[in-house]
Write a structure and sequence with these properties.
The longest helix is centred in the N-terminal third of the chain and has 40 residues. This protein is an alpha/beta fold and 301 residues long. 44% of the residues lie in helices and 16% in strands. Helix 10 links the parallel strand 9 and strand 10. The chain has two domains: 51 residues; 227 residues, Alpha-Beta Barrel (TIM Barrel). Strands 2, 5, 6, 7, 8, 9, 10 and 12 form an eight-stranded parallel beta sheet that branches. It has a two-stranded antiparallel ribbon with strand order 1-11. It binds zinc ion. Zinc ion binds next to loops.
Length: 301
């Protein structure tokens, strides 16, 4: 019994001694490492020499490519402001998917029933619809745009706007903007001037989208003149062009196109650049949000 007790005491003392030795070694190891780091930093090398001598740290993974980070509202406001958060939704065809598939228009179609749900979402969440004079007044006079405002835009003047969209807009009491290539009016699948007149009477703003739906990202100054000014004349003649807003076909523009619009009295131009912050210094390259067949909550507004 006494032998066993002594053995336990011996084992305990041995364990303590070993622990102490290990601990002191670790301590000295850390101390040495630290002093060698300190030595490296303080041995009189310039930062450039240290960088040259440094062995590159091994990288386990390829360096990630930088991804463009969207600027925040505050950043945009300081660069291009004053800015306003005005989600500008854009649509092409609104029709039943069966019809869209038969016509090969699936990619440009939001199904009518989903469109109705989207309008219901806007109504349920207290959104209001404005047209472009609100934006011009904000940029030029500082008139505030109510929070919860959106701009609904429809491109190209398709017949399904008249048949499917207009009754829904009327039902919800919503306003909208129609980007119209004036030369296509009355063609098969496009609205007639009479239908456009009914849309305008219901509060739809009709704006210039060129004459033949031509991209303004072109070197031809003649083409820009013909496309913009033919449509300008046709719209002005019908009193549809009071605020002189423009929507670029295919989202295409260049510096010449911007300058042309500006010098011919246009106050705003919309692109297909995604975003919902609209800034005064970007008034000729305004962003929009392309809406697909999904709930509007997916677009973050
Ligand atoms: Zn278009």
């Amino acid at each position: 019994m006494r032998k066993k007790k002594l053995l336990i005491i011996f084992l305990f003392l041995s364990a303590t001694l070993v622990s102490a030795l290990v601990a002191s070694n670790v301590f000295w190891f850390i101390k040495l490492s630290r002093s060698s780091v300190a030595h490296k930093i303080s041995d009189g090398l310039t930062p450039a020499q240290i960088a040259k001598n440094a062995k590159p740290a091994p990288t386990a993974l390829p360096t990630p490519k930088p991804s463009p980070k969207p600027l925040t509202f505050a950043e945009l406001n300081s660069l291009y402001g004053p800015c306003v958060n005005l989600p500008t939704l854009y649509y092409h065809h609104i029709q039943n998917m069966d019809v869209a598939k038969a016509a090969g228009q699936q990619n440009l179609t939001v199904a009518t029933d989903i469109f109705i749900q989207q309008m219901q979402y806007l109504k349920d969440h207290g959104y209001i619809t404005v047209v472009t004079n609100s934006l011009t007044d904000f940029f030029d006079k500082g008139t505030p745009i109510p929070s919860g405002a959106v701009l609904l835009t429809f491109d190209d003047g398709y017949e399904d706007f008249y048949v499917n969209v207009l009754p829904i807009l009327r039902q919800f009491g919503f306003r909208a903007l129609m980007a119209l290539p004036t030369g296509l009016v009355g063609n098969p699948g496009y609205m007639t001037w009479d239908e456009i007149s009914q849309a305008a009477s219901a509060g739809v703003e009709i704006v210039n989208h060129t004459w033949s739906h031509a991209s303004l990202a072109t070197n031809s100054t003649d083409l820009v003149t013909k496309e913009v000014m033919t449509a300008d004349g046709q719209l002005t003649q019908r009193n549809y062009n009071s605020n002189k807003a423009f929507v670029y076909p295919y989202g295409g523009y260049n510096d010449y196109a911007i300058n042309f619009l500006q010098t011919h009295g246009y106050t705003l131009a919309f692109t297909t650049i995604p975003g919902s912050t609209l800034c005064k210094k970007q008034r000729y390259t305004l962003p929009r949000i392309r809406i697909g067949n999904t709930n509007l909550s997916a677009y973050g507004f």
